[in-house]
Amino acid sequence: MSDHNGVTVHGPSVDRGEEVLTPAALAFVADLHRRFGPRRAEVLRRRGERRAEIARTGRLDFLPETAAVREGDWTVAEAPADLRDRRVEITGPTERKMTINALNSGARVWLADHEDANTPTWHNVIAGQVNLTDAIERRISLTTPEGKEYRLTAERTPAIVFRPRGWHLVDRHLLVDGEPVSGALLDFGLYFFHNARRLLERGSGPYFYLPKMEGHREARLWNDVFTHAERALDIPHGTVRATALIETITAAFEMEEILHELREHASGLNAGRWDYLFSVIKNFRDAGADFVLPDRNSVTMTAPFMRAYTDLLVRTCHRRGAFAIGGMAAFIPSRRDPEVNARAMAKVAEDKQREAVAGFDGSWVAHPDLVPVCAEAFDAVLGERPNQVDRRRDDVVVTAADLLDVAATPGEVTEEGLRSDVNVGLRYVESWLRGIGAAALFNLMEDVATAEIARSQVWQWIRNDVRLAAGDSLVGERVTADLVRRVVDEELERIRAEIGDEAFRAGRWRDAREVFEEVALAEEFVEFLTLPACERID
Ligand SMILES: CC(=O)SCCNC(=O)CCNC(=O)[C@H](O)C(C)(C)COP(=O)(O)OP(=O)(O)OC[C@H]1O[C@@H](n2cnc3c(N)ncnc32)[C@H](O)[C@@H]1OP(=O)(O)O
Ligand SMILES: O=CC(=O)O
Ligand SMILES: [Mg+2]
């Protein structure tokens, strides 16, 4: 533990951590926290107010007070050279091996993730920053304990777009005046402090993905953080480029306003489909049967409310000269099982083709083997053009009712769906608690966002007296907290039988069960599963 000018570092020691946690970098982060912490608290308070309003009315609408922004004539800043072609973006945590693999993947952009795919252990947070700087310096290499060598082989590496944590999380490993620092400001501050100038010198820039925002005031806060940070380090205004994830239902009603707030720093919007589904469930959890979603794996991007959301996103972006970036198809290829591999390739190809045809300028993949699949889908539509921002989608008309038309989603709630939510929820939380924030489970990518859907839909089914429409032993049963506890017992037993007693004992299954039951069953809905889970790391 070290204490300097009101900044206390509590985290365990991390190899080369002193390169990241320099007195000047800590002072920069502390200044951000002191300056913007109260506004962060204010935006979080507003989230609570808005949610109370949704609970009261069961509705949401476009904001009357910002109509002039939606109707006005404005565009976002021009794209820097290395962000003009974003047709394939690979995402992943900043762990060293994956960093090198992502940089060698052939993607145009690497989303270096400290949000959905990352457990914020102190090691992950700080080692991730070490890896990022090494990556930018092109001096990153690794020899694994098994003797496998990793180094940069790609001549052209992807532009790095760093995703800091969202506004909701704090990091107890670093206290500013005795208060845990905002995770968002810590991640942003360290990355910007160490790398903004380095990136500029290499013909790139400090680029960010902004996660889990719920409205334009949160975008204004980020924009003010960028402006201040640029000024503080004497970096030209507008150097930062931010892509805002539209991954909450409230933000979907403020896409124009979010881009407008960020316009001098904006690069585009991304359709973060998994958190979006979570947000729909969370916000309308007590709005009755019309908002109850069927089994998680049966909700697809062709559901009318998802189609409305993505069409509106493309229309909004292209009207404002901004990039529209697609989301993550969950299917993960397998280098061991050709059948699983072929299915993943086909499913991802279908998803990326749909996005390219709808007007997106590029999209995400979760695995290096999917880079060519996404590239092919976008090459077919873009050809030699770097993007299709000039393709206006003025034909799209999306109303509030379209965005909220959850009831038209086909599918059922089944025993298989319930068991899958419980089994995947437990496995994912267990993995997260061990510091691994993204996992392939049953050949699907699971991260915080997908796990949030699993637990929140269980919560919602219980509150809405849902009965299981199909299944073996449980068909016709009403989903209750007791039933879910029984399923938790059975699924944990299944996992124990599969991995063996020894591995089960060595895992974090008891903690995983406690966290899962808290976030799926507690009377009072827990806002984010990572809040109780963070109490159990380091
Ligand atoms: C909702 C959202 O926010 S989506 C964005 C956040 N989520 C993510 O970023 C998930 C990213 N993807 C991943 O983390 C991984 O692909 C997983 C965990 C799903 C699967 O990983 P694995 O089980 O290691 O897959 P697999 O064994 O097939 O990997 C093969 C190789 O590709 C590498 N690899 C897999 N995914 C990635 C990735 N996203 N970035 C870099 N390298 C990767 C592996 O490290 C492995 O390398 P190696 O052969 O040198 O050992
Ligand atoms: O961050 C992306 C999502 O789908 O959630
Ligand atoms: Mg997300």
UniProtKB/TrEMBL annotation:
Keyword Transferase carried by entry: yes
Keyword Lyase among UniProt keywords: no
Occurrences of domain Malate synthase C-terminal (ranges): 413-537
Enzyme class: transferase
Entry EC number(s): 2.3.3.9
Pathway in which this enzyme or protein is active: Carbohydrate metabolism; glyoxylate cycle; (S)-malate from isocitrate: step 2/2
Domain Malate synthase TIM barrel, chain residue ranges per copy: 160-405
Record keywords: Glyoxylate bypass, Transferase, Tricarboxylic acid cycle
Active-site residue numbers: R163, D447
Family affiliation: Belongs to the malate synthase family.
Protein name in the entry: Malate synthase
Organism: Streptoalloteichus hindustanus
